[in-house]
């Protein structure tokens, strides 16, 4: 008698647009794992009861997207070192002995930049925009990649300063100059510009000027599909190499899948298939 597949989901608000269910379906097919991965729309004031009910129904874990990554971290009784550093979680595993929180966003981003895009980070100057859960999650692995400098810029400077302070020792260990700034004085001429804000999702435009770029720099938006298009157009119009967050999404998903299932899928064919799907949808 066959057993029911293990259930997982991506929890967030909004969540209908998420490609994570398709990505994890491809991972499951590739690795022979029995997985049922769906979407979990959580009320803005009801993330905790929604996720607890999902776990109580027998589910094994979930990914967490905007705007709940800080709240997800607080739900877990055990945290990985990278989740502890970020104080934010995009991956929960519902272990019987206590939930485990991890953060796979940063390792996914770094792998997409350095492997998929072929852009080295060592010795480069990096601007990271935003101080929400996404930016907090990627800062530690970005530091570990040893760029010369990382500037975290945010509308509310105090939020960026708090995250930078928490990462100060980590940055010192890796020889990385790390600072927090406001949007109006973010700096100029960065080699890599990463937009970790929800500006693209909200359709509110890029909140810094083109002076943050230099010719040929990489400009990456963590969003993908139609939500990222305005950012990509803006970056290209100012001489940058534009990239959306689809590669980051696939790579961080593979890390989550490995945490849950004990096997890491090959992301190359999955990213190629997802890119074709997203491009086809955007062309309609």
Keywords:
alpha/beta; single chain; 12 strands; 284 residues; 6-stranded parallel beta sheet
Description:
- By secondary structure, this protein is α/β, with parallel strands linked by helices.
- Helices cover 44% and strands 21% of the residues.
- It is built from 12 helices and 12 strands.
- The strands form 2 sheets. Strands 2-1-3-5-6-4 form a 6-stranded mixed sheet, with helices on both faces. It has a 6-stranded parallel sheet with strand order 9-8-7-10-11-12, sandwiched between helices.
- Strand 1, helix 1 and strand 2 form a beta-alpha-beta unit.
- The chain starts with 5 loop residues before the first strand and ends with a helix.
- The mean pLDDT is 95.
- Which strand order do you get reading across the main beta sheet? 2-1-3-5-6-4
What radius of gyration results from the CA coordinates? Answer: 18 Å
| Stretches with pLDDT under 50, minimum 5 residues | none
Mean pLDDT: 95
Order of helices and strands: EHEHEHEHEEHEHEHHEEHEHEHH
Give the overall shape.
globular
End-to-end separation: 44 Å
Label the structural class.
alpha/beta
- What is the share of helical residues? 40-55%
Number of helical segments with 4 or more residues: 12
Number of strands: 12
Specify the biggest β-sheet: 6 strands, mixed
Oligomer: single chain
Summarize the structure.
This protein is an alpha/beta fold and 284 residues long. Helices cover 44% and strands 21% of the residues. It starts with 5 loop residues before the first strand and ends with a helix.
